[in-house]
Write a structure and sequence with these properties.
Blueprint (H helix, E strand, L loop, with lengths): L6 H18 L3 H7 L4 H9 L18 H14 L1 H21 L2 H13 L4 E4 L15 E5 L2 E12 L6 E7 L9 E7 L5 E6 L10 E12 L3 E2 L5 H37 L1 E2 L2 E2 L4 H29 L5 H26 L10 H9 L8 H13 L1
Parallel strand pairs: 1-4
Antiparallel strand pairs: 2-3, 3-7, 4-5, 5-8, 6-7, 9-10
């Protein structure tokens, strides 16, 4: 076993860390308060290659491995989880799905600008009555000559109003159940495509989360991804990789909160000495550090398995399940270490605590991860 990162890994990590500190940290509290999408910061992330890290260079991507992506995600997430979730969706769900399963024409038209961050994408699976039960798709796409007529509603869509390209999962043959689900590429601005209100959320408030409505939207046949009936498989395979991104986000939120708590514990004095010299705080820090390191090993292992071409579905579910729980536990403890100061926005940890919760919910709840893990064990 080799636990060393390559020089390229370290360079990517350091570049992401510097960007997060210099570009994302200034104004992050205001963006959270105002629920403001980080437009300029996301644009710069694209220019630096963070929006299409794993895409083949022939499609304008960085050609990097998944470990590099995880390291960058952690550093970005330490500072601004709203920015990192846009990065995750664009990399793990949209770009990966198009490169893996899209036609050459789709890659030329959509993947190339997505990989550079010139445009960003959205992944549209969840519906008002289809969250964890992704088989219960109500959105329908009915064949009409050389087009499909798309009708339905999607909700909780990251990059909902800022995306230009949307991967939409819809039912094309209801009689076949989940085997009748297909996947389509839809462009913003098409007739009948309406973007609903932005959600007012607990955390990741800068993230652009919307409901989307489709009324008789005409989607060309050439914008279908794969064959009819491939949509559910497409969604599940794509989400396997997406879990690695969200696990890395959770890891970053946890490690960001821990670093703040550690630094604060050395500065804050109580009973005549820094609180880091009190055993009650030392034990908290020890637990935080240990759990973060365990989460990091699970996340890196799932990324490594993906890079080796091995089955990583089981490992990515474990990584997301554990890292998201660590994110919640560590951020709560980071607030506790800060005491009353932890409860105010100026010290950042209350925001990280609010951001952490969503990692247990989106791209597969913790309960769904346990189903995936248990099926793998029993199989």
């Amino acid at each position: 076993m080799n636990f060393d990162y390559t020089e390229e890994h370290l360079a990517v990590r350091d570049a992401a860390r510097e960007f997060a500190q210099t570009e994302l940290l200034p104004g992050v509290i205001d963006r959270d308060t105002e629920a403001k999408f980080p437009h300029e910061q996301i644009k710069k992330m694209g220019e630096l290659g963070f929006m299409g890290m794993m895409v083949d260079p022939k499609y304008n991507g960085g050609g990097m491995d998944t470990v590099s992506y995880v390291l960058a995600m952690e550093e970005i997430s330490k500072i601004d989880a709203s920015a990192s979730v846009s990065m995750s969706v664009n990399n793990s769900l949209v770009c990966w799905g198009l490169e893996k399963y899209g036609s050459e024409a789709q890659k030329e038209k959509y993947l190339k600008p997505l990989a550079t961050g010139e445009i960003i994408g959205a992944f549209c699976l969840s519906e008002p009555e289809a969250g964890s039960d992704a088989t219960s798709q109500k959105t329908e796409a009915v064949k009409d000559g050389d087009h499909y007529i798309l009708n339905g509603t999607k909700n909780w869509i990251t990059n909902g109003s800022t995306a230009s390209v949307y991967l939409v999962i819809a039912q094309t043959d209801p009689a076949k159940g989940h085997k009748g689900i297909s996947a389509f590429i839809v462009e913003k601005g098409w007739d009948g495509f309406v973007i609903g209100k932005k959600e007012d959320k607990l955390g990741i408030r800068g993230s652009d989360t919307h409901s989307l409505m489709f009324t008789d939207v005409r989607v060309p046949v050439e914008n279908r991804i794969g064959e009819e009936g491939f949509g559910f498989t497409f969604a599940m395979e794509t989400l396997n990789g997406g879990r690695i991104g969200i696990a890395a986000q959770a890891l970053g939120i946890a490690s960001g909160a821990y670093e703040l708590a550690l630094a604060y514990s050395k500065e804050r004095k109580a009973f005549g000495k820094p609180i880091s010299q009190h055993q009650a705080i030392q034990f908290k820090l020890a637990d935080m550090a240990t759990n973060i390191e365990a989460a990091r090993l699970l996340v890196i292992k799932s990324a490594w398995l993906k890079d080796q071409g091995q089955d990583y579905a089981h490992a990515s579910a474990m990584a997301k399940l554990y890292a998201s729980q660590v994110a919640m536990n560590v951020t709560v403890e980071a607030v506790q270490v800060h005491g009353g100061y932890g409860y105010v926005k100026e010290y950042h940890v209350e925001r990280l605590m609010r951001d952490a919760k969503i990692t247990q919910i989106y791209e597969g709840t913790s309960e769904i991860q346990k189903i995936v893990i248990s099926r793998g064990i029993l199989r």
